[in-house]
Amino acid sequence: MNILKDFLVAPGSKVHLKAFKTDACGKHDSKSSARSKIKQLQKRLDVLQFRLYAEGRRSLLICLQALDAGGKDGVIRHVLASMSPQGCHVVGFKQPSAEELDHDFLWRIERATPKRGEVVIFNRSHYEDVLVVRVHDLVPKQVWSQRYEQINDFERRLAANGTHMLKFFLHISKDEQLKRFKKRLDDPERHWKISEADYTEREYWDAYEAGYEDAIGKCSTNDAPWYVIPSDHKWFRDLAISTIIVDLMEKLGLELPPPGVDIDAIRRKYHQAVGRSVSEHSGKND
Ligand code: AMP
Ligand code: MG
């Protein structure tokens, strides 16, 4: 298995989600065997994100999409939390407000895109406007069907202006979703996450699948690729996503900015300060 290639959706391809596994594990057969690799990747992610921030020239936008209980919150907690909150934040997109609906669908998205040096994680995204909106006929087909091209134009513009993008669909099986719903029911700490919609949306599974197949196929580009991540095993999902993010960031060739001062001169000042401090202390002891 090659994590970087196997889950990448080739631009212009026709996607059949059933052809993508939900329960892949790679060479690891358990969470414990993958744990050290995940830890190593998290450490590297921390270093790379700090460099991106220090460099202050480019940015990274990570989009997370999934059906209910797909694990978006888990990815944020386990993978992305290793980055420093200085220069990295999460933006969640729920049902649009009245004000947002009074603008075009990309208005609220545009305002949330990362600044130079930042990493921004979208928990849901503009893709909802060709997913939930399509499944529930929230706007006419004639409107949503034009959005794929609008999304590609928008993302191309971001890329041309220094924003790198990675888009992850957390792919779980229908059985796994039900298992996670049960876990939520059994655990009072998770009751707040339960919504009636979880069960009604499950009835639309096939329609969502068709929506995702179109969105992912039409909008996976070299600049802003889509990955279909096997997510039944949470640890494998975390391993795959951190591998892909670290790989992209390594390729950016991030460099720390050169010092804005003469380091040798500052070092001399430091030694002078140390010398003074030592003589002050010895003076006190006299
Ligand atoms: P959750 O992520 O579970 O908090 O739920 C957020 C809800 O907002 C989901 O049911 C989404 O489908 C919905 N949502 C997000 N974006 C849109 C949108 N553009 N139009 C309609 N519903 C949306
Ligand atoms: Mg939900």
Walk me through this protein's architecture.
The chain is of the alpha/beta class and 286 residues long. 50% of the residues lie in helices and 11% in strands. The chain is built from 13 helices and five strands. The chain has a five-stranded parallel β-sheet, with helices on both faces. Helix 2 (31-55) packs parallel to helix 12. The longest helix is centred in the N-terminal third of the chain and has 25 residues, at 31-55. The protein is globular, with a radius of gyration of 23 Å. It starts with a helix and ends with a helix. The model has no long low-confidence stretch (mean pLDDT 96). Bound molecules: adenosine monophosphate (AMP) and magnesium ion. The site of magnesium ion has 2 residues, from loops.
Question: What are the salient characteristics of this protein?
Answer:
five-stranded parallel sheet; 50% helix; single chain; alpha/beta; 286 residues; 11% strand; binds magnesium ion; binds adenosine monophosphate; globular; 13 helices
Quick structural overview:
With 286 residues, the protein is of the alpha/beta class. The chain has 13 helices and five strands.
